[in-house]
Amino acid sequence: MGTALQLTDLRRAFDDGVVAVDGVELTVEEGQFVALLGPSGCGKSTLLRLIAGLDAPSGGRVELVGDPQLAYVFQDPHLLPWRTVLRNVALPLELRGVAKPEAAAKAQEALSGVDLAEWGEHYPAQLSGGMRMRVSLARALVTEPRLLLLDEPFGALDELTRLRLDERLRALWRERGLTVLFVTHSISEAVLLSERALVFSPRPARVALDVEIELPPDRGRAVRTSQPFAALTERLAQALEEASA
Amino acid sequence: MTRAPLILLPLALLLGCPGEPAGAQATGASGATKVAIQCNWLPEPQFGGIYHAAQAGIFAKHGIEADVRKGGPDIPAVQMAAAGQVEFALAAADEVIRIREGGADVVAVFATYQTAPQGLMTHGEREVATLEELLQAEGTLAVQPGLAYVKYLEQTIGIKAKLVPYQGGLGQYMASRESLDFAQQCFVTSEPLAAEREGAPAKVFLIADSGFNPYTSVVITRRDYLERHPETVAAVVAALQEGWRAYLDDPSAANAHMHTLNGSMDVETFSAAAEAQKPLIDTGAPLGSMTLARWEELQRQLVEVEAVEGSGKPSDCFVSSE
Amino acid sequence: MKRLLPPMVTLLAALLVWEGVVRAFDVGEYLFPAPSVVAQAAADNAGALARGFGLTALGALAGFALSAVVGVALGAALAASRTLERAVFPFTVFLQTVPLVAIAPLLVIWFGYGLRPVIVSAFVVSLFPVIANTLVGLRSVDPALRDLFRLYGASRWDRFFKLELPAALPNVFAGFRVSAGLAVIGAIVGEFFASYAGDDAGLGLLVASWIKQYHTDRAFAAVGLASLLGLLMFGAVNGLSQLLLGRWHASAQER
Known about the structure:
The structure holds three protein chains of three kinds. By secondary structure, chain B is of the alpha/beta class.
């Protein structure tokens, strides 16, 4: 397992004087599931966009080792309303020049992976919020990315759906061994999902705490209600409070 | 018009019925009767006598305060008079017969032209010598859609040229200087003279020579107005006769005034046109007078070419100043 | 059919009121003919009206088709570059404000008489809404979707045809809806100046000609047909919108 991602003294300042990210240093190993925690507006999203290449840093460097296939999941599903669910999932492959039949087949597989195999011919407008998020996830996974970036993807969903999707995500991660960066402001979600949690200070974003999540790989109900889980949650909560002070 | 409850008056106004209650007349500052005279074209020598009568105080002398309004291609002078929006308007005799059949009881009181000044003009260099040859030649003929004499010519001589809408002025004429195969309607006293001044002299053919000769620039009014105010109408007719006599003798003052209202024609053309139209107006008969025979013949011709059904009586179309 | 009932009832009621008012006030036929008279005139002149309808429809449809294609292309070009937009857009606004009756005689000089200047007239009048709405539509694309496309390395071609154009389609159709009616008006006004008479007369020329002859009833019949043409074109645009947008956009869906 080598390094997947290296951030060196990363900085992003905007024209209006706002400094969203200041001097962030970070190394992520291949196959790690990393949660990025922090209060709203602290710059986590900006950091993620810098990593994805959707934004350019004002200072420092983003290094992605081995030019990995990237995928990004937004806070809203952002599906193309004029395409069917299947063709939405197939979109990244189409854009990379994959032939339509092959893209469709892979898309169908990805849909099965999120338990939406029968919904390919429907339109996004006909799906619930949770289902649309699953489609967005399937779309992210269809290109078999090595690095998956998620920006508070389940924030708008209800508790139960959220939990289900968290479990699915973790299962998919375990299956494929990809590197995941997961931005959230939910501490319990961070502890549930990740092996490593980073707590960020309020804007400008700086790493305030970097802690390993030592919990069993299978994070079922037993683990969720265990003492170590609670202890980690408390620790992160404290760090968050201190960082926000 | 039937009497209707007052509350429906706004609707009546909307439909163009006269807004004045019956019997009333507007009076001017000096006690003179106010009337509006709606011309059916821009100020040109065809209205010279009217403008002169207004400018030189001839209307005033007869106790009339005349508001002479300029017209144009888009102003429906005849309908305005028929609906009572103006007391008098200018029209061609064939229009009078046609609108009477459409339900408007208007009547002619003064005919300016004894010989209709309408003509067809084409480029001087074009190889046509008669009206027949012109109509039978290939090319385009620009006329206002719906003119009665066009129907007449179509039926009697036949028109081979393609008819297109006439837009006024000489724009289309000048644009066809190269191809030459263009002809358009005109008043023989105005557009051809203007064309000559622009360096593109024209050949002109008088429509009246074909036998179709309606009175032109006829002053009309509603019959009910005539019946309620016969003295006003008589005064207006008298003023017109005087005004025209004076204008025929010396058009310069009225021309200068009309030129300020209509800059599209220059002063020299005004003067040449005023001169050229004299024989069409002053034919020995009293100025403005009309005969039953002429009206009967016109109705006969219009019925022949199916422009009208002929349900009206020609004698109802006019009152002679005699 | 049930959908057509409300407007049909309204139309019938309006016609009855019209007929009633004309009879009650004894309005002259030359001024404002009753529907019964107009209907009779339509029947008596069915041949000329049908030919006129065909010609005007041809002019309006061709002009509209042109403005649809050119308008979307121009809108796309302006959306691609803010500089170009700033440089060119003010002049497209000019298209909306130029009084057609003023330039129509020029159209005759440049394009002659007959169908061609009528098509150009319809085109000029109906172009602006397509450009403006296409521009708005293309500029309103979800920025997150733009990010998505960028992330996956989409080509310019893909970005336009797979993202921008479909996203702009509801707006483009909004533009088409306005444009269709304007094309009819443009064709009619063009015909005032450029239509041949006789068998080649478009509806516009028939209206002008019959008004001049005080056949107001026939003129009304022609005007009615022109309105019908506008309605049919509008309906066609709506139908197409339903086909392309029906499954995914609120604007084309039944409630």
